[in-house]
UniProtKB/TrEMBL annotation, chain A:
This is Uncharacterized protein. The lineage of its organism: Eukaryota, Viridiplantae, Streptophyta, Embryophyta, Tracheophyta. Pfam families: CAF1. PANTHER family: POLY A -SPECIFIC RIBONUCLEASE/TARGET OF EGR1, MEMBER 1 (PTHR15092), POLY(A)-SPECIFIC RIBONUCLEASE PARN-LIKE (PTHR15092:SF42). SUPFAM superfamilies: Ribonuclease H-like. It comes from Erythranthe guttata (Yellow monkey flower).
TrEMBL record, chain B:
This is Uncharacterized protein. It comes from the Eukaryota. It comes from Erythranthe guttata (Yellow monkey flower). Pfam families: CAF1. PANTHER family: POLY A -SPECIFIC RIBONUCLEASE/TARGET OF EGR1, MEMBER 1, POLY(A)-SPECIFIC RIBONUCLEASE PNLDC1. The lineage of its organism: Eukaryota, Viridiplantae, Streptophyta, Embryophyta, Tracheophyta. Belongs to the CAF1 family. Its cofactor is a divalent metal cation. InterPro entries: CAF1_poly(A)_ribonucleases, RNase_CAF1, RNaseH-like_sf, RNaseH_sf.
């Protein structure tokens, strides 16, 4: 019976595998095998030339207008992404270190289940997070195991949280030897040190005495302990020396140096820095090294518990390998906010902070643009199949997991490997697609990805150098003026020429609205264009600033119909205000009301340029 | 539910006024999702003198079944709540993969209205659409070529149809060469061409060609029996026939979407049943549960507790809370031996043979109520699903506790026909704890808060630990955590306003604190003084003033108690109170107005234990 069932499920699994066509085996990592996987991935990262990264998150954008739209400048796009990255959560983090040899890609995919469990009971890493049911259902469609994630996902703390946690949870940390012995001691200091010395001396004598005179009464020995203030650290006696200020700490350490057998430890308490120094008495030199090792081990253990998954991020960061991402701005913002620190308030600060984390980031989406205008190719799969049809760039994916026989698979006709049935599920395949897409693109663009043996990347190929670190999805950021107006229908439009329009009585299509504007405001249809941003608000672009001023005057003059309009700086304020309402119109209303009360401080309009692209019709049906 | 509080300061505190308690509950019900819903109807069987319970446990999930307005279903998860669920082996996969979807009444109305407007002005819409498509540019060479080829193919097909009698299957041959892209079929008794495997752009071009060049062909897009979208070119005899066909298709599409909306109602059918049957609903400490039910299945929560209560009364006229019952009835309360009145505890005490441990068949000298359980045609007299904190089991426990409590109150189920009207229950019915922490009871009939607890003797338990909090005497301070030590505040304020000026200082979280003054005037005095000190920041008076020590040059902000209400009413939820307060304070309107509009943000919950009683 059992056997039969086993067979059944096996064939079902096989069918599913068949259904998915290609089958790559990705190493699945959860809390239970994380510590084994860590050294593996470390070796893989350091042996590879690139690291591809792909995230599975709980949501993207809450409302239509909160997506990154073609009208967004780098700054407003960052604001939107910042909001999303703080609210949503990463549930799955796939990492794939890979190298390219000829037409062969050697990839080592890992898939980590991540969950912000509060391991240390300090309310971190995250109190709560948002989920979008559409994201969860599409994850379910791909067979995502939510139980595995929540029960057994790897927790983490960001760098900023780690330092906060250190202060919060009082613990012991060894004193690193490089305490500068300050040469100038005041009289008070010397007296303090002498007092400490004599106290420690007494304590050591007492300890050794009690060892010798075993006949001592239990009561007497405990009384003696009380008097001497000695405690026990593990099996060794210890003494806690309270300090009144941070300044006294090095003094105590200095005083303790006299005693060879004593190991000083910092006692840090909640909220404040070092509160006391604990001296632990060891019986011999060997015992001392043993103790030091013990302390180091527990600290290491503690650190692992604290950092959790962030170890992987730190590995990627220290390896300095270029990071390949798809949809970079959002993913990198997520990584930054979950594993580094809360997102800074401006795009520039974010860029700087990210550069210190990952020196090179390569956006596949951006590379796609080098080939042609595929602004809609947001989906990795779609982009892949597009390339497949248009270009011939055969690439072999060689996927190897450590500890298993490398399965050499040609990606056109991948054969499902029959062993390890529970391991060959579909999680984390996106990262392989990202790296496949990247290599394909580079081979089409004739960008060399191979590095001579033994030589590590210090310099990226010039063409890659240009695209590296430009986080853009649709936005052409400021440092990216290399790509100009390529396709005929993309024009530069100054943000000065945009007007936001809302307060329409009922829903309209952009076409209807355009007709309405033509009719009631006497503007020629050639002079402007309209796009709906969401159901309540539209953006109007005027090719001519004069017409725009006339239009603004007319709308403000008419007033009665409830139609309202605002210029781009108001939109910028909406994005900065942190009021992410579902309807853009509402945000505009509130922002305008507020600015009226705030005595109209006119924000300086800097000259920023966005690209108005006719292909990017905002299609409400798509949303 | 996926969580209870969206931020630490949104937890319930002693110094929350009832309206603020409601705002906090409202926030919770709006933000979080319900993932499991337990319903356990109880029926009195006069023959066997026992209750028959039918526990049900529903997994629900706010899946987006019908295309929304670009608004997404979004809900918050509190990490600790998910861990709690995981501890009790909650099956998240089951919930997300197979959980029942639902649609609230207001969502359904909204969807139907949209459907109507879509199909009513469709006539004008489609014509203007075709005009627009006509000026859509055929810029790309590939597009033009494709259009021409399609024109040829379609006209060939049409010619083939017209001459079918004579030429037989002459066309079929050429069709096959088009590698299965086009297949001839019949649609509504008319010959049609099925278009397969074309990109959306190609389909758009085909549509354009069909509408422009062939008067008797119609391009339609239907959903087949197995719900696969199909694009067809249909041959019609005349233009009137074509219009007829188009309207048929439209009607069909409308019906389809109507069916879709109806089926998306899903789990709400259960709630509708509960509501329409007007049975007595029993819950345990169920105000939050009720708020969840309202926001998920009826509509957005009203802004005040009074409005909410009157809206609830329409749907559920009779609600009884076993927690209120146990705490306010002297006899039952004594029975609990002043222990905790949590559901499992009460169940253990009141229904020992059913609950774990106990053996006695009498509860405090009163005969025990027998409860039989029926699950899937199987009867158990001693049912224990074992799943602690499973909603269905919680509902069963609530019902059992209630039935035993009734027996202890001396209600005879054989003679009682209408339980809600029973006079012995009148003291308790429709009385709910607004929040357990404050023991404020709200009367669902009137919307009034009953300050004095119902029972007379158990004042020992309801007596507040703190002296009564006077809201109007209170100032709210927020700022960087290091500046808000209670001792510092007390010292500084006492230096300025005198030793007896401060009654108490309570911390909301590390970034905010309430300072309660002894007199109401002191509040405005304090705020005025603070303002004036900040205005003249650098004058020697303000530097040396004792208050400057805590105000720290404007980094610490202050406001009266009403501000707290505004801050709680905001739909935002920052983790730290100070951050939240900054956002709300800088957008004065954001806190007060708002909320009624978006129907999209339903966030649901979990352990709803409702029991329907006969």
């Amino acid at each position: 019976m059992f056997f039969k069932r086993f067979l059944c499920s096996h064939t079902a699994a096989a069918r599913r595998r068949h259904h998915h066509g290609k089958q790559w085996s990705v190493k699945q990592v959860t809390n239970s095998n994380f510590s084994e996987a860590l050294p593996e991935i470390k070796a893989c990262i350091f042996n590879s030339d690139f690291v591809a990264v792909s995230l599975q998150k709980t949501g993207g954008h809450s409302a239509t207008w909160q997506r990154i739209l073609p009208i967004d400048t780098a700054e407003t796009a960052y604001m939107k992404v910042k909001d999303a990255a703080t609210r949503f959560q990463i549930l799955q983090f796939s990492v794939c270190p890979f190298s390219v040899k000829g037409s062969k890609v050697i990839a080592h995919p890992f898939n980590f289940h991540v969950f912000p469990r509060d391991e240390l009971k300090v309310g971190m890493p995250s109190y709560s997070f948002s989920c979008q049911s559409s994201y969860l259902t599409s994850m379910a469609r791909e067979g995502f195991d939510f139980n595995a994630c929540i029960y057994n996902g790897i927790s983490y703390l960001s760098k900023a949280q780690e330092s906060a946690a250190k202060i919060q949870t009082g613990n012991l940390s060894p004193v690193n030897g490089a305490v500068e012995p300050s040469s100038v001691y005041s009289v008070a200091d010397t007296i303090f040190m002498e007092r400490i010395e004599s106290r420690v001396k007494n304590w050591i004598r007492a300890c050794k005495d009690s060892n010798k005179t075993e006949v001592a009464d239990a009561l007497i020995s405990s009384l003696r302990k009380l008097v001497a203030g000695s405690e026990v650290f593990g099996s060794r006696p210890s003494l806690t020396i309270d300090v009144c200020s941070e300044r006294q700490v090095p003094l105590v350490i200095e005083a303790l140096k006299e005693f060879v057998d004593v190991v000083p430890l910092h006692v840090t308490a909640k909220g404040v820095g070092v509160q006391a120094v604990r001296a632990v008495l060891t019986s011999s030199k060997e015992d001392k090294t043993l103790l030091e090792k013990e302390i180091q081990d527990t600290e290491h253990e503690q650190r692992k518990l604290v950092r959790g998954f962030r170890e992987v991020i730190d590995l990627i960061s220290t390896s300095q390998r270029p990071v390949v991402v798809h949809n970079s701005l959002y993913d990198l913002a997520l990584i930054h906010s979950k594993f580094q620190a809360p997102l800074p308030s401006t795009m520039d600060e974010f860029k700087n902070s990210l550069l210190s984390l990952f020196p090179h980031t390569l956006d596949v989406n951006h590379l796609m643009k080098e080939i042609g205008p595929f602004d809609k190719m947001n989906n990795v799969q779609a982009a892949l199949s597009y390339l497949e049809r248009r270009f011939s760039a055969p690439i072999d994916m060689d996927i190897s997991n450590q500890g298993k026989k490398p399965t050499y698979l040609k990606h056109e006709a991948l054969v499902a490997s029959t062993e390890e049935p529970e391991n060959t599920n579909t999680h984390g395949h996106n990262v392989l697609r990202v790296c496949q897409l990247f290599v394909k693109l580079c081979s089409i663009l004739k960008i060399p990805l191979e590095f001579p043996e033994g030589e590590r990347i210090t310099q990226l190929a010039p063409s890659l150098q240009r695209t590296s670190n430009t986080f853009s999805s649709k936005v052409h950021t400021a440092d990216d003026d290399g790509v100009g107006i390529r396709s005929g229908n993309s024009e530069k439009v100054s943000t000065d020429n945009l007007v936001f329009l809302w307060g329409l009585k009922n829903r309209k299509s952009s076409r209807n609205l355009k007709n309405l504007i033509c009719d009631s405001y006497n503007v020629l249809s050639e002079e402007f264009d309209v796009r709906m941003l969401d159901r309540t608000c539209a953006v109007v672009v005027f090719w001519n600033a004069g017409v725009l001023d006339r239009f603004l005057g007319m709308v403000e003059g008419s007033g009665g119909e409830g139609l309202r309009c605002a210029r781009y700086n108001t939109y910028r304020r909406v994005c900065e205000s942190g009021l992410w309402k579902a309807d853009l119109a509402e945000c505009f209303d509130e922002t305008l009301d507020e600015s009226e009360t705030l005595s109209r401080t006119e924000a300086k309009l800097e000259e920023s340029v966005i690209y108005w692209n006719d292909d990017e019709m905002i299609n409400l049906d798509d949303l | 539910m996926t969580g209870v509080t969206s931020a630490p300061w949104r937890e319930s505190f002693d110094f929350d006024r009832p309206d603020i308690q409601y705002l906090k509950i409202k926030d919770s019900a709006e933000k979080f999702a319900v993932v499991q819903f337990g319903v356990c109807p109880f029926r009195w069987d006069p023959l066997s003198h026992s209750f028959l319970a039918h526990p049900h446990n529903f997994y629900i999930f706010p899946r987006q079944e019908i295309p929304g307005d670009g608004l997404s279903n979004e809900f918050l998860c509190q990490t600790s709540s998910l861990e709690f669920l995981a501890k009790y082996q909650f099956d998240f996969n089951k919930c997300i993969y197979e959980g029942i979807s639902y649609l609230s009444r207001s969502q359904e109305e909204e969807a139907l209205r949209q459907l109507d407007s879509l199909y009513n002005d469709n006539s004008g819409y489609s014509s203007s659409n075709s005009r627009n498509d006509a000026d859509a540019q055929l810029v790309r060479m590939a597009d033009i070529l494709f259009t021409e080829r399609m024109k040829y193919t379609v006209s060939e097909w049409r010619a083939g149809l017209l001459h079918e009698g004579n030429t037989g299957s002459g066309f079929r041959g050429s069709l096959n060469t088009m590698n299965q892209t086009f297949q001839t079929t019949f649609f509504q008794m008319r010959p049609a061409l099925v278009l397969n495997g074309l990109s959306s752009r190609q389909l758009r071009l085909i549509k354009l060609v069909t509408e422009k060049d062939f008067k008797d062909l119609a391009y339609v897009h239907v959903t087949g029996e197995n719900s696969v979208a199909q694009k067809l070119i249909v041959y019609t005899d005349s233009t009137s026939d074509r219009d007829l066909l188009m309207s048929e298709v439209k009607a069909c599409q409308k019906k389809d979407s109507l069916v879709k909306i109806k089926s998306a109602i899903g789990f709400r059918h259960v709630i509708d049943l509960l509501s329409s049957e007007k049975k007595l609903i029993v819950g345990h400490n169920c105000f939050l549960d009720l708020a969840h039910v309202y926001s998920k299945f009826f509509g957005p929560l009203p802004l005040t507790a009074e409005e909410f209560v009157s809206a609830v009364r329409k749907y559920f006229p009779n609600i009884i809370d076993t927690k209120v019952l146990i705490n306010s009835n002297d006899e039952l309360f004594l029975l609990m031996r002043k222990g905790s009145t949590s559901l499992s505890k009460a169940f253990g005490v009141l229904c020992p043979p059913i609950g774990p441990g106990g053996t006695s068949s009498d509860v405090a000298g009163k005969p025990r109520v027998k409860v039989e359980v029926q699950v899937d045609d199987q009867r158990f007299s001693n049912w224990n699903s074992g799943a602690k904190h499973e909603a269905g089991y919680d509902a069963f426990m609530t019902g059992s506790v209630f039935s035993q409590s009734c027996r202890n109150l001396g209600i005879d189920f054989n003679s009682v026909l209408n339980l809600p009207q029973n006079e012995k229950l009148q003291k308790y019915i429709n009385h709910l704890y607004l929040s357990w922490n404050n023991k404020d009871i709200i009367d669902l009939k009137t919307g009034k808060i009953l300050v004095e607890s119902l029972g007379s003797n158990n004042n020992t338990s309801t007596k507040r630990r703190n002296p009564k909090f006077v809201f109007s005497n209170t100032v709210l301070l927020w700022g960087p955590p290091s500046k808000l030590r209670a001792k510092d505040i007390r010292d500084c304020v006492c230096k300025v306003f005198g030793v007896g000026s401060i009654v108490s200082i309570c911390h909301l979280d590390e970034t905010a604190a309430f300072v309660q003054f002894s007199k109401e005037e002191l509040v405005s005095d304090f705020l005025e003084l603070k303002d004036s000190l900040e205005r003249e920041k650098n004058s020697p008076v303000s530097i040396l003033h004792p208050l400057s020590k805590i105000l720290e040059g404007g980094f610490v902000r202050a406001a009266n108690y009403e501000m707290y209400k505004d801050i709680c009413g905001s739909s935002l939820s920052q983790v730290l109170f100070a951050e939240q307060a900054e956002v709300v304070a800088s957008n004065p309107k954001a806190g007060v107005v708002k909320l009624a509009v978006e129907v999209d943000s339903y966030y649901p919950n979990e352990l709803l234990s409702d029991s329907c009683m006969k």
